[in-house]
Structure prediction request, 684 residues.
Amino acid sequence: MTDDLTGRQFDIAVVGATGLVGEMLLELLGESDLPLGQVTLLASAESAGRRLALRGHHLAVRALDGFDFSGVQIAFFAVPEALAREEAQRAAEAGAIVIDCSGAFAADQDVPVIVPEVNADMLADFRERGIIASPSPAAIQLAMVLKPLGDQAGLGAVNVTVCEPVSSAGRPGVDELAGQTARLLNGQSPEVKAFDRQIAFNAHPETSPALQSGASRAEVRLVLEVLRLLGDPGLRLNATCLRIPVFFGTSLAVQLETAQPLAPEEAAVMLASAPGLVVSEGPLGATALEDAVGQDSVRVSRVRADVSREQSLNLSLVADNLRKGAALNCVQIARLLIKDHL
Amino acid sequence: MTDDLTGRQFDIAVVGATGLVGEMLLELLGESDLPLGQVTLLASAESAGRRLALRGHHLAVRALDGFDFSGVQIAFFAVPEALAREEAQRAAEAGAIVIDCSGAFAADQDVPVIVPEVNADMLADFRERGIIASPSPAAIQLAMVLKPLGDQAGLGAVNVTVCEPVSSAGRPGVDELAGQTARLLNGQSPEVKAFDRQIAFNAHPETSPALQSGASRAEVRLVLEVLRLLGDPGLRLNATCLRIPVFFGTSLAVQLETAQPLAPEEAAVMLASAPGLVVSEGPLGATALEDAVGQDSVRVSRVRADVSREQSLNLSLVADNLRKGAALNCVQIARLLIKDHL
Prediction:
């Protein structure tokens, strides 16, 4: 549709179209300049028949189960990990190029993990399996900042604390926080369904079950994805992922050592010119709600020295977990794919 | 009143008696075995005349302004920092021993900063100024864990992310979160008064204004207090303090290096026997709401290896910021003072 894309049209599928990320995908695909041909919306059998809008057209949702992907060129997957592992494989075998944000393929070395601003050059590796992984929201944010910092000054040890919103667990997470909050304000006891414990006015010290090592699944995925995005398997990255009672927006507190000296002011200037980042100046740091939700960029603030160590910086990151953290990154991958590889 | 205290009675004052910490002080003083004589409750002129209960007696609140402290032996201060700096000094000059939890004296080397489980031996230093500082909730939690870990294995660099509840800003903070949440659930726009930005369903990347270095006042206070509590001015401690939409309970994500090897399992066993700590086992970590609020102990969970580094551990801490984080620590200081020094 625009000069810098190919002029051809691409038939796509959105798998998990009725979920939070699926809905955001439809919104962003509608706004994008991607040359879309036939668009198929897929979801569970219960959602089949619902109609969703894309570029002014109303499209009926079809059942994923048994759908034949052979006519689809690009399939966006926004479904839980276990389902993605099975169905994305099936879609790829039918000839579709899959862009998956479930995390199912984070450890598969023959599936590239891509953030276009960070490692667009790895995208060609999609040909091996026909699958491209879009990383977790925290990995995307962190890699977008560590990449330019590492290029400039080299990276030593990195430590990150991630505060995840309830929407990282999809619509059930959002409903849980809203429902529990309403019940508590009405003097009723909260119902616990989506998470293991009350989340309203509470914080959970993990977002997913612990593995043998004691690290949570989300923490292991985050570390793995960032190491792959940076192409640095030796990076010393330590992560803790918490869940806080916020609907949208992922917040990160990052502490990092650099191999070369880098003053906080220099780092802030350099990050401000890096793709996809906006650096907040001023006395107050950026918040998820006010500076990230609804925005395409990752917002950096509170860039300051860690005075306890040599060559060490602290900074805060916020981003919209449904946009750059998921749907937007998938759309950007698709755009790059069409522009350079199809 | 009990055998292990002296049998004498002590006339005390609670300054800021109508605040959140003040009310908790009254509750804990009432439950304690401290031999109390005359108890004077003090607050701002607007609160004067209110009646509060202590050990079944109803006591009228008096105005702090102009109050003569000369008959008071121990004065608990639970008021904002600026007020504490002025009035605590006045109380001490009148002969009262002040126990202050405002942070006003964190940097004063002639005022001991005390957590009884950590550095009871420093308490005698109160004689210089007649003032004892009770540290911030995060500093208390962190020092209670770093002290036994350091004694056992030595400490290398420590990195902490603190998630503070709104009650760390007192009743206005609690009212702000409750009011904003209720308005948002009713489709109204939230009013911003106590904090700079909406806190309901949001997270703030700092809890207090930034100093010249970029670190916030709360972060600088935390580091200073922990170094003083541990008696180790060379400790490499880096801190980030966030505010999250939780009413009560401070949560910490801690990463630390030890000088000697210390397996997570060993660390957990050792911490479980340290005073004031309870270690949670099991697949899920402890939460502020369910495991800390209303409890006297600091709860440790998720003790695990930081696999990115040699001799490095991660752990989570939660504690009731009004109890062990403030009022309980002050009462414990008073008990130690009476038992060993008066």
Q: What stands out?
A: Chain A is about 30% helix and 25% strand. Chain A has two domains: 10-136+326-340, 138-321.
